[in-house]
Description:
- The structure is a homodimer.
- Chain A starts with a strand and ends with a strand.
- Chain A is 38% helix and 22% strand.
- By secondary structure, the first copy, chain A, is α/β, with parallel strands linked by helices.
- Chain A binds chain B through residues 7, 11, 102-112, 129-130, 133-134, 137-138, 140, 159-160, 163-167, 249, and chain B through 7, 11, 102-112, 129-130, 133-134, 137-138, 140, 159-160, 163-167, 249.
- Strand 5 (105-109) of chain A pairs antiparallel with strand 5 of chain B.
Amino acid sequence: MKIIHTIEEMSNFSKKTHLKAQTIGFVPTMGALHEGHLSLIRQARKENDIVVVSIFVNPIQFGQKEDYRRYPRNLKLDAQACRKEDVDIIFCPDREEMYPANYKTYVTVRDLSDVLCGQFRPGHFQGVATVVAKLFHIINPDIAYFGQKDAQQSIIIKKMVEDLKFAVKIKIIPTIREKDGLALSSRNAYLHKGQRRDALVLYQALTLAKNLIRQGKIDSSEVIGKMKELINKKKSANIQYVAIVDPKDLLPVDKIRDKVLVALSVWIGKTRLIDNIIIDRKT
Amino acid sequence: MKIIHTIEEMSNFSKKTHLKAQTIGFVPTMGALHEGHLSLIRQARKENDIVVVSIFVNPIQFGQKEDYRRYPRNLKLDAQACRKEDVDIIFCPDREEMYPANYKTYVTVRDLSDVLCGQFRPGHFQGVATVVAKLFHIINPDIAYFGQKDAQQSIIIKKMVEDLKFAVKIKIIPTIREKDGLALSSRNAYLHKGQRRDALVLYQALTLAKNLIRQGKIDSSEVIGKMKELINKKKSANIQYVAIVDPKDLLPVDKIRDKVLVALSVWIGKTRLIDNIIIDRKT
């Protein structure tokens, strides 16, 4: 396994790989790798000749008051995990390599970026789309892997690729959960013991929604009401949003008829957690 | 020569070309080809195995009140001209092929897009950057050719390519002029006879600036003042802007010390014309 720090070396490696007619699977991450990331990496390993994992805590997707500085960074542990999964390349440029002074270009996916998490994190998805576009150009992957955990991000990246005709296939990999149901997230590391217990309520609320819909409830506001009631029972929980939307355009669904994305964001103490499930009434 | 209308066919052609280790030179145009375009095409022909010319009147770079509808379109004449220059492919997708319903993704080059023409054409350079990014992904050229006539556009595209690390080399080709100095433009076709005479004042003003600077004038406001005076003598001329800027960041230069871009936009009747020259005091 090789660790590459510069754009030039990375893109030269990719060019050589394609000249040998080998395929590249790419897993973009911000490091602090957990089983969720590893499931993406394993999928990439199965399907490609070469696996590239990027580790870059992308400053432009963090708001002024967000956790850019304290976001967990541990390249040594991440490299160990990647080596174990037989990754070929870790690409970890520094901030100045990706955004030199005088950097000016941004990619925006309209509408999809302004709802759900986007309402509360202005500029976040522009930051995500921009860094992913740039990484795609540098690494030129055949397939790139994203987690269903970040549902809105996945939908935005798929839309960007479709609209701008990037030559890459996007695969979305199911969310990995702890045994008790908590979705894996690098930010779970911020949780104290009592908060860890309360954090379970995100998954419990999603499970409640699934059961209500399976039982025949079709009124989104009723389902959302019951989810909120459940979450509000937890002392450390503070709801940012609970939404039932169309997974294609992320617009609110009033009556649940077929496939919906149930998504929520909840502050547990000072840690903002997100989770989601897709529910298809017809299956 | 082949005329391709769909993105799929175009990108398949490009993939096959690269598999044969052939290079692609790309000239993006809005059609209504004149000697300016042909000089780009000839340069592309010299330097590449395959030459692709795109002809697409890009709706998203026109303002509501601009000339999208009346912009000259004549694929038959354009195809004749391309055939004569030994072009391999004309790519001319229709509007729905490039921007299907529900299209959402835009590329913005900040700061550079808001000055000079950008002040008067909000969204214009976002439209340009977006369509060029998309065409680059579809055609995957080794080299793309742009005209110095659209100086701001060239600078924005170069910045986009540098920032997002597109794998394409950008070449800027000198402006082609009529014998009397008028820069070639598809919009010159809009000019009536008297206007055609008055339109010459753009080049005359630029020539005046060059002479003044060569004579040792270093005060931009003085040079701009004399240029405006000259232009205002023409009855049908209405100045939109006259500017002396740094060609790197397009910011106004107060004292002319080395390389400057002298750029102007003038309405001749109902036709908006632009022109520019780069002047280096040191050479």
